[in-house]
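Record pair follows.
FIRST:
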Amino acid sequence: AAGDDAYSAGTYSQGASYWFSIGVLWDKAGHDSYSAHYYSQASAMHLCAAYLVDEAGNDAYTVRTGAMHAIGHDYGLAVLLDRSGNDVYAGSDSRPGIGSANGVGLFVDAAGDDRYQGPPAVASAARDSGSVGLFADLGGQDLYARGLSDGSVRLEPQWAAALDAEGVAAASPAAQAPERLKPGSKPDPGPEELERLFRAASGWGVGTQADAVRQATDELIAIGKPALEWMLREKLASADRLSLRAFEAVIGALKPEGGAMLAPYLSSAKSTERENAWRLARSQAVPEAATALDAGLADPKTRLSAVGWAGATKAGSAVPRLVEWAGGDDRTLALACLAALRSIGSPQAIPALRKLAVAEDLGLRKAAVAALARFPDEALSLGTALQQRGIREQRIGIELLAAAGTDAALALVVSALDSAKPELRLEAVRCLTEVDPARYRAQIAKLAEDPDPDVRLAVRWALGKTSGR
């Protein structure tokens, strides 16, 4: 769009996405106003991507509350890019550039005298790994209500960085990771206080609630074993996804004792308690679950989590059942089994993986190819054999060869660039671009004038990845 535009919406708007989707808003020029209520202005929630790009103008970005201004949550990727103009970013929970629960939030304002209500660049860790929150204001005389100043840098752990590039100063030494209280360093406060802390730790740790959730979780960890004993006894059976995150944090901080304390609940007579115990055992790779694995796999209610645990801990004893279920009718279970088999890397799975690598189901086929790539010689063998079959199998074969990653296998992928069949040239370009576009740039560039439009498009994409465009 061009001109002075006014964008007004409620939730999930103005470059927003939710579960396996992409949301894009791109404005070319004009002094624009963006206003929304929640989950807006580059907000990506759960395995998705969201982009808001404004190329010019003095713009105002306001969101009433909640997720906004480049927040990637739960494997979400969010990007907000404003290329020029004197802009205002405001909202009760505005923190430009947030990564939450293994998400990525990237906020860039390239030029202009800008105003920010909230502190930029926040990242919260989850699943034993980090999130990425990045903020960059690349020019102009800017004003921050808190969290940054003009011409400064701020760094945070797991992982966040905020940069105002106008006369950049050294990073503040005060921006070090806060020291977490040691488990057992605080006394048991009693059930009423534990209840309060647990409720606070079970909140959604985004926006204004982020600090409260983090502080309550740290308090539970500091109380240590008495807190976990109470949580397991009183709350495990009724725990939902958010409160399970509090369990994960406390069990993880108390390892190895935390896993041992969880282990008895894996065989609980209460089905919901048993299910949640296995979810936690899976996410924390609790080694004490080994003795309950057979029962966990046998129980349909805990089977999926037990399969995930087997993969996380590389439990070879589970391979025969994983192989059986990988070829079964339950697609969700089959995908979980293939992921576990990839992690375990047992040769026992090779015959089943060779069969599933040519499955009609795209998801199963991709998962089987990834698992078979753990055995490069097998992937090379099957990939080569598939070149003697139909177009579909030949394309799968090229994918297998690329996944194998050996010099011999990749040489065969490169040779497919010279195929008389455009489908195979296209597959070779795609696979080589995924492997290493810079390494194979010269070979791919030879197809820039390919007679097939799909091949030419793939080549332009590949060359763009190596030129920075």
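SECOND:
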Amino acid sequence: MVQSFLNAGEAFNEEKYTKLGINLDNYLHTHFNKNNQLYRVSIDSKLGTLAVFEDYAYLSNAYLSVFDQTNDKKWLDRVITLVNVMN
């Protein structure tokens, strides 16, 4: 979903879609990433099931896409952290 917003922002030259993608990525990072553990389920703000490798891969790709559009190093640092957790 993040990637779709970022692609739409770029394709239609609409900053609002890009911002939605970035905001969604921030939300995922803030609410589904605790103590360097990624979760895939949250019900009533309570984290449940741990993420699987595909979740890490998709989120890493989303972080890289935001980095490509913003050049903000924090997104690259987040990718590195996710990859290190997978190793």
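COMMENT: The CA atoms of residues 60 and 80 lie 8 Å apart.
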